[in-house]
Write a structure and sequence with these properties.
By secondary structure, the chain is an all-alpha fold. Helix content is 67%, strand content 0%. The protein contains 6 helices and no strands. The protein is elongated, with a radius of gyration of 16 Å.
Length: 115
């Protein structure tokens, strides 16, 4: 995170009430496999990441970067499916959060042992 408190973003930011995920998805041009096929693998991941990140950020602002990275390790076809299907994206985000929290817990436990 950039160190700016998310609640008080810059003074010039318009405070929008948090959009439900589905509305965020509606506002974006759908990313089709045709478009992706014209890009190289790295660009494909970039494009998918740019679609995923704002949606995930609305739900999990602190973990959005990590979760996006985790989801981008999946097959592009699966990611496209998630972008079209709110429920499966929600499930994956929740899964990723659980994994990250378990990981955090493990690190915390290791630190206790180390002392």
């Amino acid at each position: 995170s950039s160190g700016i408190n998310a609640e008080y973003g810059g003074s010039n930011t318009v405070r929008n009430p948090m959009l439900p995920m589905s509305e965020l998805m509606m506002n974006q041009e759908p990313l089709s496999s045709q478009i992706l096929n014209h890009a190289n693998p790295q660009e494909q991941k970039q494009m998918l990441g740019e679609k995923l990140y704002p949606i995930i950020q609305a739900a999990q602002p602190e973990l959005a970067g990590k979760i996006t990275g985790m989801l981008l390790e999946m097959e592009n076809s699966e990611i496209l499916h998630m972008l079209e299907d709110n429920t499966s994206l929600n499930d994956k985000v929740n899964e990723a959060v659980a994994v990250l929290q378990a990981h955090q817990q493990k690190l915390a436990d290791q630190q206790k042992i180390a002392k």
